Amino acid sequence: MFLRLLFVLLIALNIAVGAWLLLGQDDVHGRSATDPGVPELHLLSERPAPPSSAPAPTSSGSSAASASTAAAAPVAQAPTPAPSPPPARPNTYTCMALGPFATQVDMRNARVALANQAARMRSRQEQTTQTTGWWVYLPGGGSRDKALELGRRLAAANVGDYFVVSSGDQPNTVSLGLFKDPANARRRREQVIAAGFPAQMTERTETVPEYWLDVVIADNGHADWRSRVKGVGSHSTGCF
């Protein structure tokens, strides 16, 4: 029994010595407590003090250095922009009607004369009422017999230059003359009235064609249509 207990103690002692040899050799031989390649940990109190750094430059020194640098650097000047050309003046136009022309030939000649001055042209024809003269007459009374009797009475009163109208818009009247000048027509009427006959005076008209040329001319100071087209007037008209 004693021997068995002694044997167990020897085994326990061997185990203790082996454990001491395995676990206590790092401190004895100076082996590192960390794995290879892993930096060693140090306490803050064990870290060496950092070296003193140079004093930072004052703000006045920085400003002076910046000012000297700015003074030494050449100042870059922006290039002067070239003057822009003046805006183009928009073209303006005058629109007018030239005429009236007596014939279509006169109108076509005017169109040819203005071909290099007018921007646009158009021809047109209008109908107008034109005075052909002043007519002095006596109403005939409604029948040809009465008109002939009135003519014999004029002859007896020494009123000549008459004839009895047999057709037209006023048949069976006694015509006393057709005058271009209204003053001459009034004198003839007063003469017949003084002889005792109720003479009348009226204007004679007819519808005739008129020819016009509408033009659009640029206001550039170079167009002078009056030197090329003569004998007609002009007035403003709508542009086209």
Automatic annotation (TrEMBL):
Positions of region (Disordered): 31-91
GO function term, MF aspect, one: peptidoglycan binding
Pfam families in alphabetical order: SPOR (PF05036)
Residue ranges occupied by any SPOR domain in the UniProt entry: 128-205
Organism: Dyella japonica A8
Record's protein name: Sporulation protein
Compositional bias segments (type: Pro residues): 80-89
Composition-biased stretches (Low complexity): 55-79
